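Hi R.,

Here's the chain you asked about this morning:
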Amino acid sequence: MSTTTYLTKQITSAGSRKKATISLWVKRAGGFGNDQRFFSYENTSVSNNVTVFKFSGDSIQFADQTGGSNNARYDGTRKLRDPNSWYHFLVKMDTTQSTNTDRLKIYINGELQSEASYTYPTQNADLNIGHNANAYIDIGRWRGSNNQYFNGYITHFHYTDGYAYDASSFGSTNSTTGEWTINTSPSVTYGTNGFFIMKDTNSGTDQSGQSNNYAVGAGSLIKSEDNPSNVFPILNQLNPQSSGYTFDGRGSLSVTGNSGDAWRTMYATFGAATGKYYWEQKITNFTGNNPHYIGIVSDDQISNSNYDNSLATRGYMYTATGNKVNNNSQTSYGNSWTTGDIVGIALDLDNNKIFFSKNGVFQASGDPANGTNPAFTITSGYTYLPATSTYYNLNRYDMNFGNGYFGTTAVSSAGTNASNLGIFEYDVPTGFTALSTKGLNE
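And the predicted structure, written out as tokens:
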């Protein structure tokens, strides 16, 4: 979801005021340190009658309030700032329980959170959640102030009305890796206002059987190949250089320079040390003379200050003028590119080579599948990340690491991809795959 997108539904039938479960998977893309709401159940005619589940800063907060007074509350202290991770969050509420600690439970990736930060409901209390007096549920924003939009990815969002479930109903621990993994088809009962939305799609259509469909209130939902079982990189907003860019919120994959003319570089959130990978970058606005370089850099040469990574000894880039550049040395290479062009990057870390294409044509007669005529033979023994250096204000580009979109526009006609990981505009070279967690493990 982007910073202007949310789903909404008016609640017209009363549900349970004592039992409920909220379960969802999220991946952060930006807005670190800010409040961002996943779920908000509000009475629009009475101030501060609200149930909210959100990031408060970089920790999780849940509150159910009547008139601003807490019926139930949890304030987490655990910081969740990893832009590569999918997190499973779950709230379990059951005020009928005789033991107060059983009336509210918060789980993160299957682990019951035990910080001393709970306010437990009184036994058999009626909560705000479940009422139907001028009530709305919003997914991804706060209706009261029309803000606190969630910036990132959401999938497999469940709400069970009148039924309280533990995290084990929605996920399990992989016996080999020890990771918390998703249960894609949990056996649960949803109740009157319950729902199951965003199941492997960009849709508010309810999959629970209750027909509680959600409408897009604003913005647009974009389907992503990124999911808890296969994680793709995004652009890393935690690097200080990101302050020189405006992110459009679509998963931190589209950026525009915003703070004057200066060299700055954006990096992907992860890279690789072995294997063969392909990704694409579309130039959606181009200004100036030779202001834009596309390529890779080794992770030990990432800079936290404004920097042009073509200066790095292990920075290998293709320039807008058609040159190639490494260690501040440019030589003639291929065709120039400008607004509307798509640059493809084929990185062969098994043979230490990198190739660049323009609109599907690899430059300088490069042939990644056969390993001939690379742009560079790169230094072995390092982990390399996708990187882009730009200079001029208002330069804009969209990354496609396999999600099948440039910004909010789907690829026009997907190329072939034998690995079936990711969706790209042009054919993926034989033997190459998407840079993703499944791609890394092929």
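The mean pLDDT is 91.

Let me know if you need anything else.
M.
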